[in-house]
Design goal:
Layout (H helix, E strand, L loop, with lengths): L5 H8 L1 H7 L9 H21 L11 H16 L5 H19 L33
Length: about 140
């Protein structure tokens, strides 16, 4: 499943930039090249978020994931000619995905149940645990 479309890339970065990156030689966008970059971005995202316990492909797609998918796909389209800004945005996306994989950032959607919990909480009223009345 793709997290973004050509329309998302165009909306975010402009038609002229996308055309410059993926011109099919006739002044039209090469849809196959766009699809390849989008699929690569999706695969990269899935690899990280699956490590964080999420079922992939993500559904629904969090807006932050779609935004970073655009940055990753754009970086892939630039290939060896990525500018400093494009590279920084790609690195920011990967940093975010690594944090998701480590569980430091949650996406706000379901995580696969790993079957393990930290336990349960039990409250007992009317019993002093600390001598002298507590704090």
């Amino acid at each position: 499943m793709s997290y973004i479309t050509l329309q998302d890339l165009t909306r975010r970065f402009g038609e002229s930039e996308i055309l410059a990156l993926a011109d099919d030689g006739t002044g039209q966008v090469d849809q196959e090249e766009i699809d390849r970059a989008i699929e690569d971005a999706g695969g990269e995202i899935d690899g990280y978020v699956a490590g964080g316990g999420y079922t992939v492909p993500l559904s629904p797609v969090p807006k932050i994931v779609a935004s970073y998918a655009c940055d990753i796909a754009r970086y892939r389209l630039y290939d060896d000619a990525a500018t400093e800004q494009v590279t920084k945005r790609y690195e920011d996306a990967i940093r975010f995905l690594r944090m998701v994989a480590k569980g430091e950032v949650l996406l706000g959607i379901g995580i696969e149940d790993g079957g393990e919990t930290a336990g349960t909480v039990e409250f007992q009223v009317g019993r002093r645990v600390m001598p002298g009345g507590g704090f």
